Amino acid sequence: MGTSFDYLLYVPIFSDLKPDAIEKISKIGTTKVFPKDAIILREEESGSAMFVILKGKVKVSRDSAEGKEVILTILNDTDFFGEMAILDGLTRSATITAMEDTNLFIIERDQFLNLLKEHPEVSINLLQELTRRLRSADMKIKALSLKDAEGKVATVIVQLAEEVGKIRQGIVEIEKLPLQQDLANMAGTSRETISRTLHSFAKKGMVELEGSKLRILNFEKFREAYL
Predict the structure, then answer these.
(1) What is the pTM (predicted TM-score) of this model?
(2) What is the CATH number of the domain that holds 195?
(3) Number of folded domains that form the chain
């Protein structure tokens, strides 16, 4: 496993910093590995640290009024979380759970706020990422409230494609699709609906399924059809 510095070089919110500044950041934080299924943060807990995913995958979720898990998003390598509680001083807004063994870089609140003061470019990058997340959340809220089951599933597929997909000649490939139950919790539907809808997309020639791999054969056409 590489050093924290090696990983932090590729974190988007630090992308405008010089290597010596990133090296300093790597020394003010700590690293910790959370095993698969471990709860990293709980909704409503007080928060005093921000987390950067060096390697791994986590899900961001909340419980509905009926006690059902609703997955808001899935975060991967170089993503971050925990910044809201640092910035507004309130409790955690969601529960974060490791979906696989996950190595995290942890920056305490005072150190992170000092980092923002010393390096305004990090603040700008942070705002850009938070705006992107807000737009994604707006799109998802619209889909879950207005669209039918097929539209809801398509919205989640587009979200994953834009966040972790690899595009080549108009084809987007999602290397490791989340489990169908996790997809159902993201789309606000059932596992059976996920299975049926994915196979419907495949039958229409819009996607290809190969184990946990999903290919969207014409991403722009797929996106325009459902969003």
Answers:
(1) 0.83
(2) 1.10.10.10
(3) 2
